[in-house]
Amino acid sequence: MYDSRNTKYQTMTRNYRRKNKFRMPEFDLEPQTKKDILAVLFFSLALISALSFLNLAGGLGVKMFEAIKFLFGWCFVLLPVMLVFWGIKLVNSEDQNAQDTKCPMGHLVSYFGSIIFILAFLGLFHIFYPADQMIEIAKTKDGGGFLGTLLAWPLQQLLGIWGGLIILAALLIISVLIISNFSLRKLLGKIKTFF
Fold first, then answer.
1. Given CB 3.0 to 4.6 Å as the disulfide criterion, which of 5, 104, 158, 186 pairs with 182?
2. For helices 78-91 and 108-126, what crossing angle results, to 10°?
3. Is the CB of residue 75 less than 8 Å from the CB of residue 141?
4. Reported pTM
5. DSSP assignment of 130-161, as one string?
């Protein structure tokens, strides 16, 4: 007769032994070193994606370019720009307070802001297409790509083109405020100094 309790116990014992045989090594690295490693990864991905645009990154680069073009459409250059921005943000974070240096992803708010910026920007490139053609246009890797469609289509359906433009413009402004961590008054003051 088959005893399922005994088999279950044996399986649990085997799994316990397997888990305790192999342990991942722990890397005791400085917090800034962890950030620098992540920054190097961001810079490397930015360079590889830029090389893929020029068809200089081999077969994988061709597939990578197709995927980036599908997601970003005409704004495919934004991906390496965003990755470089994130890498610079990590490298320059050494002077930040101690709370920021505990986690290599301590700038999640800035990353979130840059993602909102890119989505809103892609939506701007796609909002002017007729709603029933947006997906087809994204498939041809035009306009704001698939990511632009994800934002532009519901906005156009709910608010029309002009209402959608207002929301996208608001998202762009909000994202710049998040990225820069400035108030609107301070940001406008900095813009006035340039003119």
1. 186
2. 160
3. no
4. 0.65
5. -GGGHHHHHHTT-TTHHHHHHHHHHHHHHHHH
